[in-house]
Amino acid sequence: MANLVTTAVEAIYQMDNDEINQVVEAIKLKRTHLSRQAVRNFVKGDMVQFTSSRTGGKVNATVEKVNRKYVVVQAHVGGQKWRVPATHLTHLKEIA
Questions:
Q1: What is the pLDDT of residue 29?
Q2: CA-to-CA distance for 60 and 75, rounded, in angstroms?
Q3: What distance in Å separates the CA atoms of residue 96 and residue 92, rounded to the nearest whole number?
Q4: How many CA atoms lie within 13 A of 87 on its CB side?
Q5: Which sign, positive or negative, has the C-alpha torsion 83, 39, 92, 1?
Q6: Is residue 42 a contact partner of residue 86, using CB atoms and an 8 Å limit?
Q7: Confidence of residue 2 (pLDDT cuts 50, 70, 90)
Q8: Phi and psi for 76 in degrees, rounded to 5?
């Protein structure tokens, strides 16, 4: 994998602006695809865990709503609602 990344970086340094824009667009499309694919793994009521960007700690929560790319969850402790990218969530059963 590292060799593939190194090769891609070397190729990017040789590109002109139009080619770089094409690469950026391809990356955006791939990220969208991965987000939508990840969101399909969650349904309302699932127990999940994610790492808080505010505190850096793990947060256990329950899925409240599933959107296109993001999932709205409610924390078990404190009851805060979070809008989290689906790619950042892990089912609690997978952790145990």
A1: 95
A2: 6
A3: 7
A4: 9
A5: negative
A6: yes
A7: confident
A8: -70, -35
Which carries the bigger pLDDT value, residue 20 or residue 3?
20
The DSSP letter of residue 87 is G
Q: What integer pLDDT is reported at residue 94 of this predicted model?
A: 64
pLDDT over 60 (residue 96): no
What's the CA gap between 17 and 40, in Å, rounded?
A: 35
Alpha carbon dihedral 32, 38, 44, 45, in 10-degree steps, equals -150
Paired strand residues for 71? 66, 84
Q: How far apart are CA 28 and CA 50, in angstroms?
A: 23
Closest residue by Cα to residue 61 from 37, 38, 84, 40: 84
Q: What is the mean pLDDT of residues 17-26?
A: 96
Cβ-Cβ contacts under 8 Å for 52 (sequence gap 6 or more): 58, 59
Q: How far apart are alpha carbons 84 and 17 in whole angstroms?
A: 33
Q: What is the pLDDT of residue 95?
A: 61
